[in-house]
Amino acid sequence: MDENNLTWARPWLQLVKYLEDKGLQNHVLCRPGGSLGGLVSENGISLSTYKPLMSSLPHLCLGIPTLIKKVKPDLIHTRLSAAALIGGYWGRRLHIPVVSTIDKYPKKKYYRQSTKLIPCSSAIADHMQNQGFSETDMQVIFNPVNVEEYRRDQQKRENFRDTHGIKYTDFVILGAGRFVDWKGFDTLLGACSVLSDNSNPARSWKLWLAGDGPERQNLESYVHSNSNLGSKVKFWGFMDDIRPLMWASDLFVLPSHNEPFGLVLLEAMASGLPVIATSSGGPLDLVTSNSGWLFAEGDVQALAQRLAAILHSDDLESCSSAAQERAENFSVEKIGDKTVKFYERVIREKQNTRK
Known about the structure:
This protein is an alpha/beta fold and about 350 residues long. It folds into two domains: about 10-145 and about 330-355, Glycogen Phosphorylase B (Rossmann fold), CATH 3.40.50; about 145-330, Glycogen Phosphorylase B (Rossmann fold, 3-Layer(aba) Sandwich). Helices cover about 45% and strands about 15% of the residues. It contains 15 helices and eleven strands. The protein has helices at about 10-20, 35-40, 65-70, 80-95, 120-130, 145-150, 155-165, 185-195, 215-225, 245-250, 265-270, 285, 300-310, 315-325, 330-355, and strands at about 25-30, 45-50, 75-80, 100, 115-120, 170-175, 205-210, 235, 250-255, 275-280, 290-295. The strands form three sheets. The protein has a six-stranded parallel beta sheet with strand order 8-7-6-9-10-11, sandwiched between helices. It has a three-stranded parallel beta sheet with strand order 3-4-5. Strand 1, helix 2 (about 35-40) and strand 2 (about 45-50) form a beta-alpha-beta unit. The longest helix is centred in the last third of the chain and has 23 residues, at about 330-355. It is elongated and about 70 Å long.
C-alpha cells in the first residue's frame, strides 16, 4: 500500500478480513502516519510501516526487501501506482509474483514489472490495453461493498429527515465525492438550476452535496449567485459516514467525467437509491437499465430532463430494489472469492514456470 486516508480503505479491509476467513494470511505494508495503518491494526491484521526514501526510485527503498524476506509472502498485492513501482521492482528481484490493483488511469511505467494486473473496471482495463498490456495478463475485479452495512434503516431515515426539516413529500437528490473539476458537480448544479427554473415543479426537491475539495468555493459561489438554488442546496462537507445522508435521500447522482470506478455510486445502490451517472468509465459496469439511468458527461440539459422525469414519477420502488439487487453482485464475499481464485491462478502459473 502507498497512501493513507483513502475512500476505499474500509471496504478493502473488509475484503482482507474475508480473505483471512478463507484461510489466507495477510501482512500489510504501508506508509507510517495517516489513518490506514491504524485501521489495519484495529482490524487485527498484521502490519509493517515503511517510508520510502524516494518512491520513484525503488532501488533506493532498501528497507523493502528486508521486510519481504522477513514475511516470506507467496504473492505481493499492491494498490496505487507508487506501490506497484516499488513492489514490482523488488518482487521481480526476489522472484515473487506481484499483482497490482489499478483504480485510476495511470501511466504505463508504474506497472511494467507487475506480474499481473487487476483493473477495478472495464474502462481501466481498456486503458491498460491501450498502453500495451496484454489482456491475458489482467483480470477485472471490481471494488467490493458491504451491502448489509449500507442497507437502508427506515427509522434512521425518518429521524434524519425530521431533524433537518425535510418533509415527507420532499424529494432529496444527493451527490457526493471530491470537489474537483472532473467530478462534474458543476454539471449537477447546472441541471438543478434548469430544474429550479421550472415554474410548475412536480414536487418540492432539495439537493444535498457531501464532500470537500478545491472546487468547493466555486460551487458555493455558483449556488449563492443563483437565487433559485440558494434555498434548495445544502453543502454537508466531508462525511466520515455518508450512510445517514444516503438513507435520507431519494436519488443519487454521479456526474463525473470518465470516473475510474465509482465506489460512492456502488454504496448508494447498496443503500437502495436509484442512481443517475455518466455513460463512461466505471458506471458502465455498475448501472443497469432497471437500476438507474446514464447520461452523456457534461450534458446539463439531458441531466435536467432526467431529473424532471424522475420528479414526475410516482413509483421508484422497483428501481430502488433493482439498484440494491445489482449491488449484491459486488459484495465482499463475491469479490473475495474472485480474488482468491485469481491468487491461485497467479501462484499456479509461477510454479509451472519453475518446472
